[in-house]
Amino acid sequence: MSTEEFSLFRESMQDVKPLRPKHHVIHHSVKPPAIPIKTLEDERQVLRDMLSDAYDPVELQPGDMLSYYLPGLQNRIVRKLRSGHYRIASELDLHGLNARDAKQQLLQFLHDAHPGHGECVRIIHGKGNRSNHKGPVIKTKINNWLRQHERILAFHSARPVDGGTGALYVLLRR
C-alpha cells in the first residue's frame, strides 16, 4: 500500500467506532484426551488371564461327549454342527502334546483362522486314554479354553468317522 492510499484509508475511517462485542468468547486450548490407564491395565490383565487354566469345572472321561453353544444360537445351526454338516475349513491336531504347547498352538490356530476360509474347524484333542489316573488332560483343557474364547460360537464332539469323542467341530464367529 502506498502512503497516499494509506492516508486515504485513514481519512475515510476516522469517524468509525469499533463495535463492542455483545458476548465475550473465551477460547480455551484443547486438552488432549485422557488416557484410561486403569482400563488399559485391566485389558492387559484380561489378556494374561485369557484361557485361564485355573477353571476346570468338570472331570471328563475319555468317552465323554463335549458340547457348548452360545445362548441364543439358532437350533438349525446347532443341529447342523452336531451332525457334522459344515465343511471343515481347517484342522488342528493337538493329541500327544502337553497342555502348555496345546494351549499355545490353539491360540495361534484360532488367531490365524480367517472367517473367509470357512467358519467351521476341527480340533483333534485325543481321547486321553494314555493320561493314566488324571483323565483326559488335553480334552478337559480344550473344553475349558474354548468356552472362554471370544471367537467360539459353538463346539460339539465329532462324528465317529471324524474322530468321535477325540475331536471337536468348532464353529467360529465371523
Automatic annotation (TrEMBL):
Entry GO MF terms: DNA endonuclease activity
The protein's name: Smr/MutS family protein
Residue span(s) of domain Smr: 92-173
Source species: Candidatus Thiothrix putei
Coiled-coil intervals: none
Cited PROSITE patterns: SMR
Superkingdom as given in the UniProt entry: Bacteria
Lineage: Bacteria, Pseudomonadati, Pseudomonadota, Gammaproteobacteria, Thiotrichales
